[in-house]
Each structure stands twice: as structure tokens, then as C-alpha cells.
Write a structure and sequence with these properties.
about 290 residues, alpha/beta, eight-stranded mixed sheet, two-stranded antiparallel ribbon, about 45% helix, globular
Length: about 290
């Protein structure tokens, strides 16, 4: 089975490519970038991650080489003979739909389109798309997290749902079937918690460390909500909140103004080096006080 991954350099696309390439049932993973150079950069990120694991004794060079040999590179045109496409581009319905419309004219008739959207309606993404579309939502880090939310749109055929369910299990994931609701299950519960934590910080109820420690020690969470928001990406959290608010018009999904301000300032969390914490080169992090948040 040949799988195409759209979004070579993105955190999720890159990790999803690793997941599929590591599975025995997958013969080839085609990593697609907007340019050949971006596709090459995407594979280089995978190789860099493997080298770190090899140095720590968590992976053999032989296994790394075997996985990397499965990954081919290029742009969308190289997806012509893929059996499955997994799209993991920016969380924007127009961008995602445009990618699938372009793939419609490239891919073979029986190819299945899957989107890694974390909040957008599958029915909306698939509007006007000829190939069957399904949601296949992986979680960060995709190489570690076991869950895959499987979301059927209004027009998703049952055979596609069954096939993706079986495939998720074959690649070592646990599929959970989810109805088409804004944010699905995990993000519908999780991201509003992060948003609420941002409100608590903005309103001075507690500081960054206090909010995170309260949830870790009081609710036994492995990571505080502000730490988690930084890991996910505050821009992604904001986008999800906006999607849920636009879909439902429910005030409980109103994005926190502090979150909006931080994203506008480029304070996105781990990936930008600063969010609710400052991330240092030695791997440590320091909580940011109110005066420095942006």
C-alpha cells in the first residue's frame, strides 16, 4: 500500500509519515511538499529525529535505514498512484479543500482522501471533492500517541470507514469513531480547558506555574493546560476555538483575548521558543510573567 502525506515539513505531517513508514503493511510513503526542497527538508527532519534516537540507544541504524528507504519525495503530482492520501496542512478549510480538489485530478479513482483536521467539518472539507473523504485525526506527537479519531462526513461511504478503521489498527493505533461535531471529542474537551486556563492567567487568578501545578497535582494531569497549549501550538489552539465558536455560536467557546494577543505577537509556544513559557536550548523552560507574555 502506498500512502501520500501532504505537509512534509509540518510537525504533524512529518510525524504521520514516520508512523506509516514504520508499519509493515505500508510499502511506500510519498512525502509531498509545496516544492521539492520542502519535501527534502521534511525527510531530513525525520532523519534528524532518528539520529537522536540512535544516539540514545532507542533505535538501531538498520531500522532507521529501513524506514527511511520507504520514504519517497516530491510534490502533489507524485501522488498519482497512491492508495491513500493523508492531508496535514494548515487548519484552514479553504486550503484543505483546494488541496483535495487538486488531488482529484491527479489521483487514481479508488484512492481515499483522509484529512488530519483537528476541528473542521469533514462534510465542509469534502464539498465538491470527487474522491471519498474521511477524518483521520492523529495526536501530537503522532509517533507516540495511540489514538486516531476517525470522523465520517455526511457522504463518507461505509467501506471507507471500515478500511480506515482496519488500517489504523495495522499501523499500531487505536481508532475511536467520532461524530461530526466541532472539535470532535478530544479537542472539544481539551482546547476549551486550555482557553479557560488562559482566561485564569489573563484575569490574574494565578500565575502560569500555579495554574499548571494546580491541574497536575489536583487533577493528576501529566502536563498543565498552559504547558499543553504551548506543546500543541497556541496558534492551533486559537484556530480550534474559533472553529468551535463559529460552528456553535456558543459563548463558552469564545477565544481568550490573551491567547489572540499572544498569537498575533508570534508567541506560539514550543515551536516559536516562547509561549506561556520560554524554551531554552538546554531543554529547560521558564514560565513567563504577565509583563512578558507578548
Amino acid at each position: 500500500m502506498k500512502v501520500g502525506i501532504i505537509g512534509a515539513t509540518g510537525t504533524m505531517g512529518n510525524a504521520i509519515a514516520q508512523v506509516f513508514a514504520s508499519a509493515d503493511c505500508i510499502s511506500e510513503v510519498f512525502l509531498s511538499g509545496t516544492t521539492e526542497e520542502r519535501a527534502i527538508a521534511g525527510k531530513a527532519k525525520i532523519e534528524k529525529a532518528f539520529n537522536k534516537r540512535i544516539k540514545r540507544g532507542r533505535m538501531s541504524q538498520e531500522d532507521a535505514d529501513k524506514i527511511l528507504a520507504k520514504i519517497s519525495l516530491g510534490t502533489l503530482k507524485g501522488c498519482a498512484d497512491c492508495d491513500l492520501i493523508v492531508e496535514s496542512v494548515m487548519e484552514d478549510v479553504n486550503i484543505k479543500t483546494n488541496v483535495f480538489h487538486e488531488l482529484d485530478d491527479i489521483c487514481k479513482e479508488d484512492c481515499i482522501f483522509a484529512t488530519n483536521t483537528s476541528s473542521i467539518s469533514i462534510t465542509k472539507i469534502s464539498y465538491g471533492v470527487k474522491h471519498p473523504v474521511i477524518g483521520m485525526h492523529f495526536f501530537n506527537p503522532a509517533t507516540v500517541m495511540k489514538l486516531v479519531e476517525i470522523i465520517a462526513g455526511y457522504n463518507t461511504p461505509q467501506y471507507v470507514i471500515d478500511k480506515i478503521d482496519a488500517l489504523a489498527k495495522e499501523i499500531g493505533k487505536t481508532p475511536v469513531h467520532v461524530g461530526e461535531a466541532a472539535g470532535f471529542v478530544v479537542n472539544n474537551l481539551l482546547v476549551p480547558m486550555i482557553n479557560s486556563a488562559a482566561f485564569l492567567k489573563m484575569e490574574g487568578v494565578s500565575d502560569v506555574k500555579g495554574i499548571d501545578d494546580a491541574m497536575k497535582l489536583g487533577a493528576n494531569h501529566p502536563m498543565g493546560p498552559l504547558e499543553l497549549g504551548d506543546l500543541i501550538g497556541l496558534d492551533i489552539c486559537l484556530t480550534i476555538m474559533r472553529v468551535m465558536f463559529d460552528e456553535t455560536k456558543d459563548s463558552k467557546y469564545r477565544p481568550c483575548p490573551l491567547l489572540t494577543k499572544m498569537v498575533r505577537a508570534g508567541s506560539l509556544g514550543v515551536k516559536s521558543g516562547k509561549g506561556f513559557y520560554i524554551y531554552h536550548e538546554d531543554g529547560t523552560k521558564t514560565p513567563v510573567d504577565a509583563a512578558e507574555l507578548c
